Amino acid sequence: MSLRYALLGLLADEPGSGYELARRFEDTLDRYAWHAKHNQIYQELNRLAEDRLVEVVAEGARGRKTYAITEAGRTSLVEWLRNPPDSGVVRNEFLLRLFLTFVLEPAEARQQLQQYAEHAQKRLDHLNALIAALPPEDVAPPLKFGHLAATFGLWQLPAVRDWALHSVAEIDQWQQSHDGASDPRP
Amino acid sequence: MSLRYALLGLLADEPGSGYELARRFEDTLDRYAWHAKHNQIYQELNRLAEDRLVEVVAEGARGRKTYAITEAGRTSLVEWLRNPPDSGVVRNEFLLRLFLTFVLEPAEARQQLQQYAEHAQKRLDHLNALIAALPPEDVAPPLKFGHLAATFGLWQLPAVRDWALHSVAEIDQWQQSHDGASDPRP
DNA sequence: AGAAGCATGTAATGAGTTACATGATTTG
DNA sequence: CAAATCATGTAACTCATTACATGCTTCT
What we know:
Number of strands of chain A: 4
Strand content of chain A: 5-15%
Oligomer: homodimer
Order of helices and strands of chain A: HEHHEEHEHHHH
Shape of chain A: elongated
């Protein structure tokens, strides 16, 4: 059901077509919160329309349909937000890979962790650039859609980066204390 | 396919039965990286055994089967680790809720963010207690399985907490500057 | 003796992916 | 006029959840 509420949330921010929603998904939710492909989005929008939680408010060129959230939709979304489950499902392939890195030889694991740290730094730079490019009036209001997502990245990405760097340092320490012997090959 | 590699990863750490693996899943991967229910684990183990990536190394009471990773399994896992996709899928219902919190009235949003901060703090305390209770030899080696998961929490949880607290402060600031008027009700 | 936990599974349904399909409009 | 992008969908398949099912062992 999460996809359903993700779409209601995007539409609560502002109306949009399936195509547009797919792009807004990518720009905001996709990296941290939820992933969905375009065809799944179209199908869910049709179901939402059947259930009268959204409605078509305009039709444009190329069969474009603009959806808006209805009052019933807003009610349903708010109710969902008010009743969080004890434990929400998490699936993150990126972190799964990180957690399984221990399987690799220390040197290779170290290299991967180093790359992850760099990757997190790049995304942080990118995010900072995005925020800097925003007009000032979009930066201010704390409860506009993208805002929470963007600021979350500002706290999350340094944490991932520093964790990876810390793990690299840990591997180095462990190797130093462990092999007094140098590389057997010349 | 991620579940498949998650199981191979757990078995690369040490052999175990389906039941045991389900519990190890919960203790390590479940919170941050991957979620799976016991019946899905059993099914995937059977498929892995068919494909000779794991094998039954012991059978115990109550039909208990202990699985171990095979050489082919280890090769397959390492290959997967070496070839990360450009973008891994992320699904996190908790964060989705956070991102949609802007739909609520500022006062209610504030309250929820406050709760998230407290929740993160509680989990951090719990994690610190767990680590403190470990025998020293389990804390040291940087590449044992649970280690990456545990240290990740040590970086991740404060980030979530501080972000939530920062958002609370932002809402307070915004409200102060916005309504010079006090609550209409007495 | 009963409860809690151990241990594994099946069947039906729902969520999500992959591949395929179609055609209009805008931009270079 | 060709390429890129807009725009929506269907069908087959795999992954994941829910509900059901069974029986053993240990602890109190």
